[in-house]
Amino acid sequence: MSNLFFVDKISTENIQSIENEEAHHAIKVLRLSVGELVYVSDGHGKWISGPISEISKKSLAIRIENTGETHAEKPELVVVQAFTKSDRNKEMLELVTVSGADRIIPWSSQRSISKWQSDSREKWMITVKEACKQSKRFRVPIVNNQMSTNEILNEVKTGFAIVFHESAKEKFSEISLPANLDRIYLIVGPEGGITEEELQLFSTINATVVRLGAPILRSAHAGFAAMSALQTKIGRW
Questions:
Q1: For the stretch 195-228, what's the b/e string if a residue is b when 16 or more beta carbons lie within 10 angstroms of its beta carbon?
Q2: How far, in Å, CA of 138 to CA of 141, rounded?
Q3: Lowest mean pLDDT among 6-20, 123-137, 153-167, 207-221
Q4: CA distance 94 to 77
Q5: At what angle do helices 149-156 and 196-203 cross, to 10 degrees?
Q6: What does the alpha-carbon distance between residue 163 and residue 7 come to, in Å, rounded to a whole number?
Q7: How far apart are CA 237 and CA 234, in angstroms?
Q8: What are the residues facing 63 on neighbouring strands?
């Protein structure tokens, strides 16, 4: 399997260099050799691929053979995820990234257990980028800073909001999505669930409340299940 690395800028010449932590990982951890095929992306959709042509102590060079660009698709798929237990956040981020989320918004809900720290966004971005490498995603999802419930309400007014809750009578598979949407928000609560007060607030902006099915999923897994169902419904999968 060819490895994917991220750089700040894709070269316009015939050679792409990889340096710093990415180079260290390729050389010291993966122990890649000259001639091995790798992919390199700027995280915004542009990518190149080619064999490693040179390896030094702190960098490696790629001979560019193929180039391409993955463009952003519409609708934008946004996961609004209430903070999960700290040991579950990594798993949640990996799952929603590999299932195709374009943006992830951390939600400070009433029943969120863990707290957003000054370095939380940086940690989330690291996990998201690593998941992109595993899944060969050339566009790295955006991770917003934490938002309060009121901020979430203002944010999701710009698109079609779907709230997942076990009390809903309607299943996700039973709803119809409006045509020509720019943005779809999938709103997932914490381990303790979304409160009745929060559900009432979402109803004031005409959010659609649905359930995925009979089993109640962990908060860390619900976003992945919702993304998978949505990808199928809109025809990307």
A1: eeebbebbeeeebbbbbbeeeebebbbbbbbbbb
A2: 10
A3: 207-221
A4: 15
A5: 30
A6: 36
A7: 8
A8: 15
> pLDDT tens, 207-223?
999 999 888 889 999 99
pLDDT at 215: 83
For residue 115, which phi and psi values (nearest 5 degrees)?
-115, 145
- 35, burial (CB in 10 Å: exposed 0-12, middle 13-18, buried 19+): exposed
Structure tokens at 31: 């122990």
pLDDT at 70 over 90: yes
Distance CA 48, CA 46 (A): 7
Tokens of 224: 């992945």
Distances (CA, A) of 209 to 40, 125, 171: 40, 29, 9
CA atoms within 13 A on the CB side of 19: 5
The confidence score (pLDDT) of residue 187 equals 98
Averaged pLDDT, 230-234: 96
* Residue 235: closest CA among 191, 167, 195, 177: 177
Structural domains in the chain plus CATH codes: 3-69 (2.40.240.20), 76-233 (3.40.1280.10)
| Collapsed DSSP state (helix, strand, coil) of residue 105 | strand
Q: Which two tokens stand for residue 70?
A: 């993955």
